[in-house]
Design brief:
Blueprint: H1 4-17, H2 25-41
Length: about 70
């Protein structure tokens, strides 16, 4: 859950991007909440990979036997 200061800052940034239109504070607040909630629910592409994880390698020939 995000705190009000974080939401307020994001809403302010949204308002600035839109040229600070009058009367849209509630819309900007709601949009900031949605954006921040989406960030919390979406895993970061830079999420830490467990140290014991090893990459999976697939043979170029599909894993079949290569005549030799």
């Amino acid at each position: 859950m995000q705190n009000d200061n974080d939401i307020r800052q994001r809403a302010h940034e949204i308002g600035e991007r839109e040229g600070r239109p009058d009367g849209r504070h509630d819309e900007h607040w709601a949009q900031a909440c949605r954006e921040m909630e989406a960030e919390v629910c979406t895993p970061s592409p830079m999420a830490e990979v467990p140290k014991d994880a090893s990459p999976t390698v697939t043979a170029l020939d599909g894993g079949g036997i290569t005549p030799g």
